[in-house]
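Section 5: illustrative case.
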């Protein structure tokens, strides 16, 4: 090649045709960007409505269920009392199962067995909807 001259690639298209082709590519790219933007906007809107629906239904279900406060009290075991009968009397099933409640009573009172002795003093938990 000679110095001072630049090689040009001839595509067989006139400048006007090349300009028109470039403009078409630019418009196509702009349409793709607009489509992508609208698609993402729609996706965000659908996701927001879906999550909002789940969250509001979760809040509504919480409104229906009362809140329970946990309290402790000391009781004296009576003849015929069992850990299961105490669980039926003092446990709130929506908060914990009787099995978990009995396990908690045994731990609170450092009990090695499930047997109760009339006159024995026990610390138990109970639940109430009222804050005391």
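Designed sequence:
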């Amino acid at each position: 090649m000679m110095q001072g001259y630049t090689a040009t690639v001839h595509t067989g298209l006139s400048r006007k045709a090349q300009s028109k082709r470039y403009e078409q590519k630019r418009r196509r790219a702009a349409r793709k960007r607009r489509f992508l933007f609208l698609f993402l906007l729609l996706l965000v809107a659908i996701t927001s409505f879906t999550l909002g629906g789940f969250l509001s239904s979760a809040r509504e279900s919480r409104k229906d269920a009362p809140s329970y406060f946990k309290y402790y009290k000391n009781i004296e075991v009576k003849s015929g009392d069992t850990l299961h009968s105490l669980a039926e009397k003092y446990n709130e099933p929506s908060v914990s199962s009787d099995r978990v409640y009995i396990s908690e009573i045994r731990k609170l009172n450092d009990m090695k067995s499930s047997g109760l002795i009339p006159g024995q003093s026990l610390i138990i938990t109970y639940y109430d909807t009222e804050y005391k």
